[in-house]
Structure formats: C-alpha cells, structure tokens
Write a structure and sequence with these properties.
The protein is α+β, with helices and mostly antiparallel strands and 116 residues long. The chain contains four helices and four strands, in the order H-E-H-H-E-H-E-E.
C-alpha cells in the first residue's frame, strides 16, 4: 500500500509532466465515444486542475475505483458506474461535450475532474 507521501509525490510529478507536455482534459463529445474508450484514457494533470478550472467550468469530481475490484456498495464508483455517470454528463452537455482528467491518483482510486 502506498503511503501518503508517495501519493503526494506521484501527483506532484503528474502536475509537472502535465505542464511540460501541455496536457489538457480529454474531450468527450458523444456517448458513442464512451463505448470504444478504455476506462481511464484521461491525462493525469494532478494539481494542474487549478488551470483547468480557469479555462472551463467544473461540473463534477468523481471518485472512482481504478483497480477493477471495487463493488457497488463502496464509496468509489465502479468502472461501470463511472461510465454510466459520464454517459449522463455527456447527455446533459450535448452542446460542447465534457472534458475529463485525473486530478488525483492513489494506488486503487482516482479522482476524475469533469468540466464543460
């Protein structure tokens, strides 16, 4: 299990990498895209989420089980619950779609920022 210092260091590195590479949240324009994409194709922008908040309106932050072993009775969304939540958000934001990025990563869970 990762300790808190390891998680913080990984997220700081993700932020630095995101800035260096100019990574921005992944744009999803339609539900069809959700059918073909892997569960987490989003860039890890770490704390660079502050910059994303300046460019787009944040509409949600989702806590997701990335291990694939989570169950529906846990606080973190399962992959299926996550995809269904994204499907709902895409429907609600048909005009411009939604943008998603990993904003914090632990050993078994992710926080995914969602913007429009």
């Amino acid at each position: 299990m990762w300790d808190l210092e390891t998680i913080k260091a990984l997220n700081e590195r993700a932020q630095a990498r995101a800035k260096e590479l100019g990574l921005t949240p992944h744009l999803i324009r339609s539900e069809v895209e959700l059918l073909a994409m892997p569960p987490f194709p989003f860039p890890n922008i770490g704390s660079d989420e502050v910059e994303a908040d300046k460019r787009w309106e944040r509409i949600d932050t989702l806590f997701v089980d990335s291990s694939g072993f989570g169950s529906e009775d846990e606080p973190a969304l399962t992959v299926d619950q996550f995809i269904e939540k994204l499907r709902t958000l895409v429907r609600e934001n048909k005009d411009g779609g939604i943008r998603c990025a990993i904003v914090e990563e632990g050993q078994f869970q992710l926080y995914i920022g969602v913007w429009r």
